[in-house]
Amino acid sequence: MSTAKKQIHLAAHFPGVNSTTIWSDPASGSQIDFSSFEHFAATAERGKLDFLFLAEGLRLREHKGEIHDLDVVGRPDTLTVLAAVAAITEHLGVVGTINTTFNEPFELARQLASLELVSGGRSGWNIVTSNDAFTGENFRRGGFLGNPDRYTRAAEFVDVATALWQGAGVEHHGEFFDVVGPLSVPVSPQGKPVILQAGVSDEGRDLAARYADAIFSPFADLAKGREFYADIQERLARFGRAPDSLKILPGASFVLGDTEREATERYDYERRAQVSAATAIRTVEAVWGRDLSEYDPDGPLPSIDLVVDEDITAGRAKTHRDSRGTAQQWLDRAEAEGLTLREAVITQQSRGVLVGTPEQVADRIDEFVQTEASDGFILVPSITPSGLDEFVDKVIPLLQERGSFRTDYEGATLRENLFAH
């Protein structure tokens, strides 16, 4: 007797706030014009994807005291863009990252409840926390919260928002918030927005297992994905939740080719295009903590003796805590593999990428889902706004033919579509 295949869930991350975007490619379009969001959303809905995802930066990143011009500068507000996208789509979910550290639960609950209404129950909220005092300077509370406090604040934040979304009066007096409801917005078609969470620390995993409907995970490696999947299942049981009550969706970019060789060659081009000479130097400067503009990006990495462990990049989470230790690891790998400065950065910044023919990429996605390494993927194209087109045209039909991906939307709300299978 055959067993029905586990269904794949796919979403799309509008690129830009990451190191994946290839700004220099002739096909690259605007990160700001609404026509880009419109094209991207139309493609995602044509492919029957679950939702469109937007990241958010609350302050422009700075490097050596100046605006970091290799990143998005001036992207419109997330909730405003999502409301506009909801107006031009019928089934596609609209999900945005909104910070719990620098917002207030009553105001955000009202904004998300409004997005729920105008979208017909297709909204989602990606919960993130921040310990970035540079960002906090622009908010009333400002300052800095360490890990335990920011996750405690996040949990209380979600508890308050959830109570408000239920439509009853709220009389909350907690460690971080004093809130008296109710909201002035009716209960939405799906009850409350779908909740996503993206942190993978121990505290982040517990927060997800307690509250989230989906996790935006970084584990696009099969073995690590299975380990993470199993860990989350154990945590779900600890919080009294069913195994199928949370979807795990790693972020992954993709590179397609008519042959495996063509895909590999295209991948090599994209990796170099993503890390320009200027990007390479600034990335190394952030680790070494000093100006290195006189160094050749196609030459060797600077000596470990030059590391001063200063924060010269602000507005973005540090990817390392031990600057000298990180620099030494980079130097050791560069020496062992004969890498230049730029090649070392390319190697260090490599993330989960699905590379191959459409058939090979479809095989890989199906393997992840059928062997419980994930429930699908959040796709991160390298080109805006047309980078998703090829995937929808070439890979989605193959997944549909295999019976692992929907041929049409099952429900009217994002939650119904996310949990249809």
From TrEMBL:
<keyword id="KW-0288">FMN</keyword>
<keyword id="KW-0285">Flavoprotein</keyword>
<keyword id="KW-0560">Oxidoreductase</keyword>
<dbReference type="InterPro" id="IPR036661">
    <property type="entry name" value="Luciferase-like_sf"/>
</dbReference>
<dbReference type="GO" id="GO:0004497">
    <property type="term" value="F:monooxygenase activity"/>
</dbReference>
<dbReference type="InterPro" id="IPR016215">
    <property type="entry name" value="NTA_MOA"/>
</dbReference>
<dbReference type="Pfam" id="PF00296">
    <property type="entry name" value="Bac_luciferase"/>
</dbReference>
<comment type="similarity">
    <text>Belongs to the NtaA/SnaA/DszA monooxygenase family.</text>
</comment>
<dbReference type="InterPro" id="IPR011251">
    <property type="entry name" value="Luciferase-like_dom"/>
</dbReference>
<dbReference type="GO" id="GO:0016705">
    <property type="term" value="F:oxidoreductase activity, acting on paired donors, with incorporation or reduction of molecular oxygen"/>
</dbReference>
<keyword id="KW-0503">Monooxygenase</keyword>
<feature type="domain" description="Luciferase-like">
    <location>
        <begin position="27"/>
        <end position="372"/>
    </location>
</feature>
<dbReference type="InterPro" id="IPR051260">
    <property type="entry name" value="Diverse_substr_monoxygenases"/>
</dbReference>
<protein>
    <submittedName>
        <fullName>Alkanesulfonate monooxygenase SsuD/methylene tetrahydromethanopterin reductase-like flavin-dependent oxidoreductase (Luciferase family)</fullName>
    </submittedName>
</protein>
<feature type="binding site">
    <location>
        <position position="201"/>
    </location>
    <ligand>
        <name>FMN</name>
    </ligand>
</feature>
<feature type="binding site">
    <location>
        <position position="151"/>
    </location>
    <ligand>
        <name>FMN</name>
    </ligand>
</feature>
<feature type="binding site">
    <location>
        <position position="97"/>
    </location>
    <ligand>
        <name>FMN</name>
    </ligand>
</feature>
